[in-house]
Amino acid sequence: MRVLFYLYLLVLLCGCASQPLPAFLTPRDQQLFVQGMAEVNAKRELPAAFTTLKKTYPESPWTQKAQAISALLETIRSQQKSIARLERDKASFRQENKSLQQKNEVLENDRKKLRQLLIDLEKRSR
Questions:
Q1: Which candidate, 98, 46, 102, 51, places its Cα nearest to that of 72?
Q2: In sequence order, what are the residues at sequence separation of 6 or more whose Cβ sits closer than 8 angstroms to the Cβ of residue 84?
Q3: 26 contact partners, CB below 8 Å, separation of at least 6
Q4: DSSP 8-state secondary structure symbol assigned to residue 17
Q5: What is the pLDDT of residues 42-63, one digit of tens each?
Q6: pTM for this model (two decimals)
Q7: Any idea where the domains of the chain sit in the sequence?
């Protein structure tokens, strides 16, 4: 029983320590996908390798994964544009808010002065 356990453990550990296939044994579609992922990590743009993969191997499971990643990259790009636009709007709104607060302070001071004038006029008329 112990021998079977150690044999099972040995097989399990050897399986976990396997090396990736060398490039000449890796299918070309998988190579393009891996190359594209390296480009995504480096540039954060849609890699040319994904385009080649889609054109050359349209039925590959790697093409489907590349298309999903391309869609995510496009979503990220559009969200970044939206964030940039919202940041510009936020800066504009903050400036407008500051301007309105200053106008509000001026109006509040004018209201206080008018109130005091009204009180002074009532005192004079008595």
A1: 46
A2: none
A3: 20, 34
A4: T
A5: 887 788 888 898 999 999 999 9
A6: 0.59
A7: 27-125
